[in-house]
Specification:
By secondary structure, the chain is α+β, with helices and mostly antiparallel strands. The protein is built from 17 helices and 49 strands. Bound molecules: beta-D-mannopyranose.
């Protein structure tokens, strides 16, 4: 019996700069920056001003090499393929001294048959990487225009290279144009035939019945008769069939039905049942098998026209789903350092904040298999961009062919994932053409021909051929599937709203710019104080220091962070107060935005803020910092994405209260609304019993602000509303009648009591005064608090649970260092 052999060649690599003579140890998968760091040849690229010092690396050529001795059984195989799962990026590969391939795209694998070159004893693989910058510059000299690439900090070469756009710098990340072997290297050996690919087409799924087409692709060199076996334990699928295989690619389709399937649901709407199909082929000489895990679900994006334009809504198993989540960027500038656990921690944080959707944004990478497997398991719908963002791209045949290969590979790799909701061509290019002055500045054909070919012809046709049931959406933001003739439209498609932050508008603009699906909007903040300490010594912690500015990549920079703080809060008294106020400001801003999106359901059916995570320690719009610390925004997100939400909307003298409910019907729920002054006295209270329908947003009542307040000052009162159902308070929200800086806040006073129960710490807080956005930080660990950044009335008691990070979870000696404060202590 001859089975295929997959021989991992990831160990024992060495590397050097092309002009150096000494070889150093290298890691595969890896990249030159981390290899230099591991060999102590450079200092941590994320600290101080090191980013500037390390720019030379991207301008050099690097060589990677390994020697290996093949096992005897490999020589018996008919085919020995050198499979390089990912090369970053311009690489020439030599096998035993012979040049075997030249690579120029990091987003698909490279394969070459090396059987004729393979010898007994030592074999050598050597890979020369050319500087991604120097490789492109000569080509650019002959062009009479540049391509925009506004975020590219390294000579604007990025549009020409199929390499992660953010490697060249972005407005939240450093410029580290890596080189290296960023995915596994293996010898893939087979004799005559193997299973190449499986595609499970879910064409008709309901609670009663799941009808799927199981497509098996078998590559063969000659004619064979084999037994094909398909099994799935949970559903009892067990099929055995004898089939004839011809030379070349064989495509077999098997129709399968599963009665009463356990359906897959997004987080918050049901369970994430998965089925695992195992496909085997076998005869007396050969055997091969492959498994695929899938969630069965009917997934549609409803784009139907309606009185307001046309909808943009995910409908899963017939149920409209309000998309709650954020935009995902690569979780490291050097993604090869990430593993399944790093992904799991980040994605669990998303789920813990009640998210059900993430957008894999087009300036990063197509994520690892771990990422999508975890999204399947956790119920996270993935909006998947192709990797094109914020620039125009070349339109020559060579470039298009490379993209075609990349798209075909990625679609085949990812299409079985139930979490993937749609494919999207690019990030913001059509919007930029019409609204960022590109139309006036660049030759027309870059849009009408090159852009059009890539995003309205090539990508949609590859999607249609390989993944016919999934929506292809050309660009985000976008209003329909045709080449856009204007920027964004509100009322159709998805929107990126950047009037707040980029255009300096007040938070109230969030309320006036609600579209059908809000796929981007954001507010910057600084990371956790520990993270600031990581990249910047205390003596340089100043908003204008070079190091702090180096870790702020946005064009409007720290001045804009300060501007928004001062629009709403009093001046921070020092740098760490500035950091904390920036976080609270971001929390309040995005709360304001998301609440208005949710309150506008079903007109608006999605709210994904910019951005979930970071690729390095620095200022950004993220809610989780590079080390996974929850910034204030993430705690706010957990509340504003709570399935049940109370929403206040002031309109002149009216204060309207609505309830948004993603849960099932809740009959006879108590909604209580109470006005307190900052001494804790209840000034008035309203209580209603109402039925709250499922999947709905409903305005419940409107108060006259003047009669609510009567003679009380707006500056020292708070309205608190909660919903109580079956004796439990399910949600609450606080409303203030003026901006935080206009509140007359008392000097803070509270007491704290600490207890340890199992691995967790219970922090009991008792306030003696009103506390505005009281928060707890842990300065020696990155664990998570059950709640944080909340308001407390005098005399109120709150218990917060601190769960230590994995580093300290089982460490009985761990003593967390907690710090307590509130907005009152920051100015
Ligand atoms: C959006 C994104 C990113 C950018 C962010 C903040 O438009 O698509 O390109 O990082 O804004 O400016």
């Amino acid at each position: 019996m001859r089975n295929k052999i997959v021989k991992d060649l990831n160990n024992n690599w060495t590397f050097k700069k092309d002009s150096d003579s000494i070889w150093l140890e290298a890691q595969v998968p890896g990249c030159v920056h981390t290899d230099l760091l591991n060999n102590k040849k450079i200092s941590d690229p994320f600290i101080g001003l090191n980013e500037i010092e390390l720019q030379w690396i991207a301008n050099e050529n690097w060589i990677y090499k390994r020697i290996f001795v093949p096992d005897d059984d490999i020589f018996k195989m008919g085919f020995v393929i050198l499979r390089l799962q990912g090369l970053d990026t311009y690489a020439t590969v030599f096998f035993n001294g012979d040049e075997v391939l030249k690579a120029n795209n990091m987003f698909h694998p490279w394969e070459i048959d090396v059987k004729h070159l393979l010898k007994k004893g030592e074999n050598e693989i050597l890979i020369e990487f050319e500087s991604p910058i120097q490789k492109v510059l000569p080509k650019m000299k002959h062009m009479d225009y540049e391509l925009p690439a506004d975020n590219d900090q390294i000579k604007k070469t990025s549009p020409f290279t199929r390499k992660a756009p953010y490697h060249y710098g972005w407005d939240w990340g450093p410029a580290f144009a890596t080189s290296g072997i960023w995915k596994s290297v293996e010898l893939f050996c087979y004799d005559s035939l193997y299973i190449k690919n499986i595609f499970i087409d879910q064409n008709d799924i309901s609670e009663k019945n799941a009808k799927i087409d199981l497509n098996v692709f078998i590559e063969s060199e000659s004619n064979h008769r084999v037994d094909l076996k398909i099994t799935e334990l949970k559903s009892g699928v067990n099929i055995l069939k004898s089939i004839d295989i011809q030379p070349g690619e064989n495509h077999l389709i098997r129709k399968i039905e599963i009665a009463n399937p356990d359906l897959w649901w997004p987080n918050g709407h049901g369970n994430q049942h998965l089925y695992e199909f195992k496909i085997q082929i076998k005869n007396k000489d050969f055997e091969d098998s492959m498994s695929v895990k899938i969630g069965l679900r009917d997934f549609r994006v409803n784009l139907d026209e309606d009185k307001d334009g046309s909808s943009f809504m995910f409908v899963v198993n017939g149920k409209p789903i309000f998309s709650k989540g954020a935009n995902w960027i690569p979780a490291d500038s050097f993604t090869t350092r990430l593993n399944r656990n790093s992904y799991k921690t980040l994605l669990l944080n998303a789920v813990n904040a009640n998210m059900n959707t993430l957008r894999v944004w087009g300036g990063g990478i197509y994520e690892s298999d771990d990422f999508y497997e975890l999204c399947d398991e956790l119920g996270i719908i993935v909006w998947q961009d192709f990797m094109f963002a914020c620039t125009l791209y070349p339109g020559d045949d060579k470039f298009l062919q490379s993209v075609k290969k990349e798209a075909e590979y990625q679609i085949k790799r990812l299409r079985n994932h139930c979490s993937i909701g749609l494919w999207c061509g690019n990030n913001e290019i059509a919007w930029a053409w019409h609204n960022w002055g590109w139309h006036e500045k660049y030759p027309e054909h870059l849009y009408t021909k090159d852009y059009n070919t890539l995003f309205h012809d090539l990508l949609p046709s590859v999607c249609k051929k390989l993944d016919p049931d999934r929506l292809y959406w050309p660009s985000s933001p976008g209003d329909d599937e045709k080449l856009p003739i204007e920027g964004q439209l509100y009322g159709k498609g998805d929107n990126h709203f950047w009037g707040v932050w980029h255009s300096g508008e007040e938070l109230s603009s969030f309320r006036n710019n609600v579209g059908r699906f809000m796929s981007e909007f954001g507010m910057q903040s600084f990371p956790d104080l520990k993270t600031v300490d990581y990249f910047c010594k205390p003596k340089y912690q100043d908003i204008n220091s070079d190091i702090v500015k180096q870790h702020q990549k946005a064009s409007l920079g720290n001045d804009n962070v300060m501007k928004y703080i001062l629009m709403n809060f009093n001046k921070p008294k020092d740098f760490s107060s500035f950091v904390m106020l920036s976080q609270i400001m971001a929390g309040e801003s995005i709360k304001f935005a998301v609440e208005s999106h949710r309150a506008n359901m079903p007109f608006c059916m999605g709210s994904l803020y910019w951005q979930l995570n970071d690729c390095w320690p620095g200022a950004s719009w993220s809610s989780l910092d590079y080390f996974g610390n929850w910034k204030a925004l993430h705690y706010f997100a957990k509340r504003f994405f709570n399935p049940l939400l109370i929403y206040f909307n002031a309109d002149g003298d009216n204060l309207r209260l609505s309830v948004v409910n993603d849960n099932d019907d809740m009959n006879n729920s108590e909604v209580s609304t109470e006005l307190f002054d900052f001494n804790g006295s209840s000034l008035n209270k309203h209580q209603f019993f109402i039925d709250i329908g499922s999947n709905s947003s409903k305005e419940l009542f409107s108060f006259e602000i003047s009669s609510l307040l009567q003679k009380h000052s707006k500056n020292n009162v708070m309205l608190r509303s909660s919903i109580i159902f079956e004796g439990k308070s399910l949600t609450s929200n606080d409303y203030f009648f003026v901006k935080p800086k206009e509140l007359i806040l008392p000097v803070q006073n509270y007491s704290v009591n600490l207890d340890k129960v199992d691995n967790d710490f219970i922090i009991a807080i008792k306030s003696t005064t009103f506390l505005y956005r009281f928060y707890i930080l842990c300065s020696n660990d990155s664990g998570v608090f059950s709640d944080n950044y909340f308001n407390m009335l005098p005399g109120q008691k709150i218990e917060v649970i601190y769960s230590p990070s994995n580093d300290y979870k089982n460490n009985q000696d761990f003593n967390p260092d907690f710090e307590f404060n509130s907005v009152q202590g920051l100015s």
